[in-house]
Amino acid sequence: MLLEELLRCQIQEWYPAFRRHSIPTVIIPLPAAFLRYLAGQEAYPDPDAGSGADEEPLPFLLPAITSGRQPFAPIHAHHPDPDSLLNSELFFGSSTEDVYDPDADHPHRPEFPELEAAVDAAIAELGGAALPKLNWSAPKDATFMSADGTTRCTCFAEVAMLLRASDCVAHDLASARQSCEDFVRPEGARRNARKVSASAEEAATSNVNVIGGSSSTGEAPSDVEDQTNAVDCDAEDAQEEESNGDAWVDDGFQYYLALRKWYPGLRPESEFRCFVRDRKLVAVSQRDASAYYPSLPGWSSEVQPKIEVFFEEVIEPQFGSNNYTFDVYVTTDGRVKLIDFNPWGGYTLPLLFTWEELEEEGREHELEFRMVMQQGAVRPGLMTAVPYDMLDWGEGSGWDVLLKKADEELDRQMNSLDGAS
């Protein structure tokens, strides 16, 4: 895979040209401090400190939130019973004075007020909920962190939580460009990213690049929920890279946060991955290869010609690469919406194909459409669902520590209620 092919698949590169045919999206440039945070480094390092090679890894901390919009329901002493909790405005209360935050005074906890304001404003512009992704990948492998098991975000705190927990986002930062055969790291790039002055930080975050949004001229699909695709690194490979010590290096490359409008009512059988080789559409795969959808085999005869026409009239004339993949969603009324582009090979998942099959000579003469034809033919999921620590219940495990802390917090709340009464 060549670097120019990978760069062409960045959402901020292709979205302006295909905006009318895609999902409303707001794109925001990310400051270096936030990238350091995502990479598990000090967001604002001390310029007088050493290299820090022997320092302990930073703990998983959410940024300090200035808006009060927390990713989890805060603890309110004046809502002691479950019914009151469910009926209260837990997530978006106007006051945070009664919210217990155990990390409030942690010395390594960063804050990004300008970025937080830009993200919250963009989410509001998109209707109140959005899917986040970086230049290439979305944090679908981190949905175990969210309350509803999806990538749906309603505030900056939820966006930061998913991005920080995602191996696929870590892959975007540390390995995406480096995996290209012609990648050469710029001279002077260092693993300890340069310190960004307050004025530079402000300039980076205030210059929000909004190139899409609710005012998009393209009609949004009525039954799309853009949450299933935008993650195309192999999670297992990403985890292996992280364990091998690959880390983000600040070489001046600009990363972006793309917030994509969230649509309820997803029909996963309506999404497809299309493979283009030598500028010919050679294969189409059911996007969710881990499930059998009884309606899909009969519907595919209607879907295939629509995808072919969409490729010939919209994609092929405007996209510059010879070899690539693109994902589409076909609505119930027959419209085709572009979801994403991904490079050919590399970390892009071939789904119901293999890359060896797709690269066979002569395949470009006939389009092959693959789907799961029966229940027993589904392939296992290609993404890990939860970290191993969440499956380990032994003494000293993550769950053991969590449950002990939960007991301590329950005791604290009960004592607080007793004192108040």
Strand line-up of the largest beta sheet: 7-6-4-5-8
Q: Note the run of SSEs as H and E.
A: HHEHHHEHHHHEEEHEEHEH
Regarding quaternary structure, how should these chains be classified? single chain
- Please bin the fraction of helical residues: 25-40%
Major sheet size, sense and barrel closure: 5 strands, mixed
Tell me the domain tally: 2
Number of helices: 12
Low-confidence runs of at least 5 consecutive residues: 74-97, 190-231, 241-245
Beta content comes to: 5-15%
Mean pLDDT, all residues? 79
Q: How many distinct beta strands?
A: 8
Cα Rg: 23 Å
Shape: globular
The SS-based structural class is alpha+beta
Taking the alpha carbons of the first and last residues, their distance comes to 66 Å
Pfam families: D123
Family: Belongs to the CDC123 family.
InterPro entries: CDC123 (IPR009772)
Protein name: Cell division cycle protein 123
